[in-house]
Amino acid sequence: MTARRGGAVLIVLCGLLTLLAPALAPNPPSMQFDDRSYAPPMRVHLWHDGHWRGPFVYPQMLRDRMMREFGEDRATPAALRWFVNGHMVSIDPSHGPLLLAGGDALGRDVWSRLLHGARRSLGVVLVGVVGALAIGIAIGGLAGTVGGRIDDWLMLAADFVIVLPGAYLVLVLRSLLPIVLEPAEIFAWMAVVFAFAAWPHVARGVRAIVAAERAREYAEAARAAGAGRLRLMSQLVPAARGFLLVELVLLVPALLVAEVTVSFLGLGFPEQAASWGTMLQDAAQVTVLSRAPWVLAPAFAVFVVTLALHLAAGARLERSTLSLFNSR
Amino acid sequence: MLRRLAAAVLFVIVVSIAALILGRMAPADTGAFGGGRSAVTIAEERAAAGLDRPLLIQLRDWVVGLAYLDLGKSSVYKQPVRTLVLQRAGATAELGAVALLLATLIGVPCGILTGARPRGALARLVSPVSIALIACPPIVGALGLLLLAISTGWLSTAPGSLALPALALALPLAAMLERLQSQATTEAIASPDLTAAAARGVSPFRLVWVHAARQSLRPVLGVYGIVIGSLFSGSLAVETIASWPGLGRLMIDALMARDLFLVAGCALTGAMFIAAGNFLADVLRALVDPRVRLA
User: CB within 8 A of B162, min separation 6: which ones?
Assistant: First the structure.
């Protein structure tokens, strides 16, 4: 029970961080700071020379440009400013940028990009999941309520999409578009493709549940009372609530990984548009990773989001997975 | 099984047709990468690749070729798509098979142990690890293992080394199998026939590892069909991170170069693998459970 509560708290926290990103991020996500390429994260200190000073940082300075060695300017502690210029936390610009999670290859603030990237990555996933659930409920509900030949054809259409490995499906659909696209176009494309790739799984489950419900007395009663197909469907679909909740928990991480993978491979959001996938692009290089492990921050974020959802779903997830794939 | 394969083939044909039409509309076939060559050379190359022929003829030839398992010719590598795809498919199959084996060997026995004693010390130790590993999708796991390999040297990061990509794919899978096997084992042990067996004096060891294992094998095997699909999806990123020369990387390279036939060929091969994997899983299920009949 505590694990489930912990998961729920984590989900709310991630949601708040994402929603409030512009206020929480100390720096603009695309701002390139001079001499901050792969700068390490700044540590927040409390005591200066043995005296309490409240939270502050030592300004960063580049010691050696060739070796990319950074140091702290111990002489001039920069106090953290709260709620100045619409940023929750920042330091006086004369001390240089505040890099709480370090800098990336171009000297941009990883923490600010992570927050702004969450809006893009999680946003596109949510739109895709909602789309998949809507299509899946409509088609699965229809197939289960009506039965017969329409059912056969709709489920054949679902199989048609399920047979391809998800990531290959996304890539094949990506090959239909030009490689270079605007961030807004990519967002729309991804949401559509995610909904398209994921609906059959929803539809199959909803259909199985609705078809089983159709045989029960209350469905019989509804039919006897003269309910049409649409009305009957609206009576039967709520039985799939539990399944839909589990499906939501499974789909969000799956589609998040899809966004991260596609953008990581350079086929998703363009590099300048911060998303968790684009931020990971140079993390696969051994030289980068050994010098600046903080570029893995988005991978950690994916881990946290997935973990939170699994914790919140608890053991219910395994039970329904087992029964779902064995009922077919 | 046949229905699945037919659907896969049909899907790839539809996508290839769409890709050909769209590729024709966008000036992005191989000829467009002119790079200082004369218009005549470009025209010759287009002719050699068959791109100057009418669209319908190109399509017809491609679909007819499919019947002979001829997937067309790659415009970048200047080789038949089939040759290229077969070279790389072996590497992906090897990676997937090793990962699946590893995941099964770790996940299933752990699941039986934790399922037999859900409140025991081992279960308390293993389940948090499992939940954490489930939250490490292959792309995250591969990057994490890369960092681990760099900082400790426990794993080789050389291109072509199998350990890192196989572990990245296997660990989340092993964790998922452990959770499922644990759940299924607990349910099997609670079933009336196991109580009857225990009353007859069957030893606890035999009860868990023979009687309960046999009952729980079927539901867990049912998940394998979906597992194989997720292996392929996961290997896409893992192959890139670990420089493993598989189908996923070939497909990405083909996509970047707008080599549409090669993209379609890779997707078709992936779908065939999945169909074959599902078939194998169905056969295994029929072997352990006589009630399952092969459709």
Answer: B94, B95, B98, B244
**pLDDT class of A265 with cuts at 50, 70, 90:** confident
Contact B274 A311 (CB under 8 A): no
Distance of residue A174 Cα from the nearest chain B Cα, in angstroms: 8
Q: Which of A175, A179, A260, A261 to mutate to test the interface with B (most CBs of B within 10 A)?
A: A175
Confidence of residue B28 (pLDDT cuts 50, 70, 90): very low
Contact (CB<8Å) B267/A169: yes
Q: What pLDDT, on a 0 to 100 scale, did the predictor assign at position A325?
A: 57
User: B180, B233, B258: best mutation site toward chain A, by most A Cβ within 10 Å?
Assistant: B233
Sign of CA dihedral A306, A311, A317, A319: positive
* pLDDT recorded at residue B67: 64
Contacts of A32 (CB under 8 A, 6+ apart): A106, A107, A108
What pTM was computed for the model? 0.85
Binding-face residues of B in 141-170 toward A, CB within 8 A: 143-144, 146-147, 150-151, 157
> Closest Cα of chain A to B44: distance in Å?
24
Q: How confident is the model at residue B11 (pLDDT cuts 50, 70, 90)?
A: low
Q: Confirm or reject contact between B267 and chain A (CB < 8 A).
A: yes
Query: What pLDDT, in 10s, does the model give residues A69-85?
Result: 787 777 777 777 777 77
Question: Could you give the count of Cα atoms lying within 13 Å of A148 in the half-sphere of its Cβ?
Answer: 3
State CA B186 to chain mean position distance. Answer: 29
Tokens of A167: 């990531």
CB atoms within 10 A of CB B69: 8
The Cα diameter of chain B in Å comes to 87
